[in-house]
Amino acid sequence: MKVLVFTGLVLALILSSRSSLAQDKIATPTTMAVWPGKEKVWNGFTLYDFPIAGVDAYVVTPKTAAAGNPWIWRAQFWGNAANTDVSLLQHGYHVVFLNDGDSLGCPGAMGRWKVLYDFVTSRGLSKKPALEGLSRGGLFVYNWAALHPDSVGCIYGDNPVCDLNQWPRSSPEWVKEWTKLKKLYGFKSDADAEAATMNPIAELEPIAKAGIPILHVVADADKTVNYEKNSAILKERYKALGGSYEEIVKHGFDHHPHGLTDCTPIVAFIMKHCGGLETSK
After folding, report:
1. In this model, does residue 1 exceed pLDDT 90?
2. What would the pLDDT profile of 131-177 be if each residue is shown by its tens digit?
3. What is the CA radius of gyration of the chain?
4. Do residues 218 and 231 touch, judged by C-beta distance below 8 A?
5. Alpha carbons 244 and 210: distance in angstroms, whole number
6. CA dihedral angle for residue 60, residue 65, residue 71, residue 74, rounded to 10 degrees
7. Residue 189: burial class (beta carbons within 10 Å; 0-12, 13-18, 19+)
8. From the CB of residue 171, how many other CB atoms can be counted at a distance below 10 Å?
9. Do residues 125 and 94 lie in contact, with contact meaning Cβ atoms separated by under 8 Å?
């Protein structure tokens, strides 16, 4: 009897020590979770801003969640070319963002992404989000997909960095970023970077094996993230591995602006692979 009483007391103490994050309501595939943090209004939707893994995370909730609680995970540049995110919110998606932009998709960043992924999926969001990588965000989404191919529904890249040896390494105006990247990735020399396997064009095999579909929106006159040295190489290699790759080319455009004025093709691609409400809410 004393053992039973002691066991009960220990269990009660464990339960009572859970953080407020764990105490909030958990979502089911057809319901909405209650999220922690400060509430804000973002494009007419509720944004929750809370700390996790030492950085700030945002979760924006739809008015009505689509079955399965699909979500898009934006890797970089919160609010830039946001019409795709807003449209997906109207189709029942959550939008998730980790404000970890200075980390350039490094191994440490992937650890923080794992913490956020585990948290939001434990609260009912889909196990296979759409990944959204604008510019250097390509480093994040491809590194994540290569490490966790079973945790991705599709990839949408927008003028994405696909080879860290092109950007920031070969761009003189980005010397500081290159120095930072080498330190974050643990490269002791440029030769280490050339041989790196944690680099989008070098880590496509597990992504293709998992059957993850890819869409890139690219500018063929991009002077920052050169198309021929990034998306064109990734496209060739991914298709050679049997992967599904689609592309929308913005002829004559430079790196900016990102996205499409009419984001319908992007939204349709994401919804084809990750679901969503057919009628906007």
Report:
1. no
2. 999 999 999 999 999 999 999 999 999 999 999 999 889 778 788 99
3. 20
4. yes
5. 11
6. -20
7. exposed
8. 15
9. yes
Q: What is the greatest pairwise CA distance in the chain?
A: 79
What percentage of the chain reaches a pLDDT higher than 90? Answer: 77
Gap between the Cα atoms of 90 and 45, Å rounded: 9
Give the residue from 90, 134, 136, 140 showing the smallest Cα distance to 110: 140
> In 3D, which of 272, 161, 179 has the Cα closest to residue 216?
161
| Mean model confidence pLDDT for the chain | 88
In whole angstroms, what is the distance from residue 38 CA to residue 72 CA?
A: 20
73, β-bridge pairs? 96, 131
Q: Specify the amino acid at residue 229.
A: K
CB atoms within 10 A of CB 41: 9
Residue 55: beta bridge partners? 52
**Which of the pair, 276 or 122, is modelled with greater confidence?**
122
Structural tokens at position 42: 């973002």
In this predicted model, what pLDDT tens digit does every residue of 88-119 receive, in sequence order? 999 999 999 999 978 999 999 999 999 999 99
Structural domains of the chain ordered from first start: 36-274 (3.40.50.1820)
How far apart, in whole angstroms, are the C-alpha atoms of residue 223 and residue 219?
9
Q: Look up residue 171 and give its amino acid.
A: S
CA–CA separation, 231 vs 251, rounded Å? 14
Cβ(32)–Cβ(44) under 8 Å?
Answer: no
